[in-house]
Amino acid sequence: MVMTEAEIVEKYRQLYPAIPATFLDKFTKSAAVRATISRKLCLPAPIFTDAEIIRPVPPFFLDLEITTSCQLSCRYCARTFMKVSPKHMSFQLFREILAANPNVAAINLVGLGEPLLHPELERILNELKKRKIRTSLVTNAMALNATKARMLIECGLSSITFSLDSTDHERFEWYREGADLTIILDNIREFMALRKSEGSTMTASIFSVLQADTLPGLGALAKFARSVNIPAIVISDLNFMENSSKSIRSDINRETVLTKILEQMREVAKQGIVLLGPNILDSVNMAEDWPTSILKKPEQIIKKIHSKHRYCLAPLRTLVVRVDGDTNYCNCTPETSAGNITSRPVEEIWWDEGLQNFRNNLFFGPVPDCCQICPRLSD
């Protein structure tokens, strides 16, 4: 059933109860929400004013890095090539970040670390639950034992994404040094079984980074997803400038790559699994927004570079906060900074000159180098 714009707005108000009544009007009229509603209704994208791009309403989503500790050294991860040291965000800093962002309605626990390793994760999740903030989490599932699985469900996690590139042991463990695929797959199976038995409404998906030698295994990954009742796989090409030469889009045999992708998309379809583009991870509400991110053709996966980036809404609604309170322009630019949340008001950070220029170039051109290789869709 197709919803009206008024019905979509009302649905968002129900889904994001943490939004203060005083901010509701700004939220529903913001550029990011208007664009999302237009996609849902299959309408042309709204025209943003310069002011909406340069100085959007205060952020209502957070990408929050609560730890930089991780058991793995993935070859393509920024944590590996930036040589990031392990560190946990203190609960005090976490509370400061929430206090500095009173309009936040949803938080995605993601970054250059594994959230399940944070020693106070349960305390953090319970605090977010108390504040009625929708919370999602991205995990490699290595530490997802029975105790943590039950804790995630009881703490009311809204969405979980398993970072899983392949079910081929040799390939997976070569790319993800320190991983044990048998443990990961067993943990996911047990978690999904517990989720079902507990009647949890938490959404679940798999996030898979496509590479030349993992692409042929996409169908097998979909078969595993079906076996554990995970309905969707979010697929992405490599991001970060350091990985650009290994991107499947950099393959000179474009037609051959497109043929291989089409073959795998057909295999995925046979399993009844939906393929989604990586922009869905910005929604923090996958169950509601996934129809706008369905991949239907191979060209969407290895898109050509555009002079303007028309699809990514993250810089208009999501503030990226790192483990020490520092902020980035987006999750794909860990080298940038718009200021630290402990020493600068969030409005100053959100309207920082560097971040303003980043948004301006993103939407009006020339597209920043990092955005040219970003796998988020523009078509």
Describe the structure.
The longest helix has 17 residues, at 181-197. The chain is an alpha/beta fold and 379 residues long. The chain has 17 helices and eleven strands. It has helices at residues 5-15, 24-29, 31-40, 50-54, 78-81, 91-100, 121-130, 146-154, 169-175, 181-197, 218-227, 254-270, 286-289, 314-317, 346-350, 353-364, 369-372; strands at residues 61-64, 73-74, 106-109, 134-139, 159-163, 176-177, 203-209, 232-236, 274-276, 318-321, 327-328. Helix 8 packs across helix 10 (181-197) and helix 11 (218-227) runs parallel beside helix 12 (254-270). The radius of gyration is 20 Å and the shape is globular. Helix 7 (121-130) links the parallel strand 3 and strand 4 (134-139). Strands 9-8-7-5-4-3-1-10-11 form a nine-stranded mixed sheet. A two-stranded antiparallel ribbon has the order 2-6. The model has no long low-confidence stretch (mean pLDDT 88).
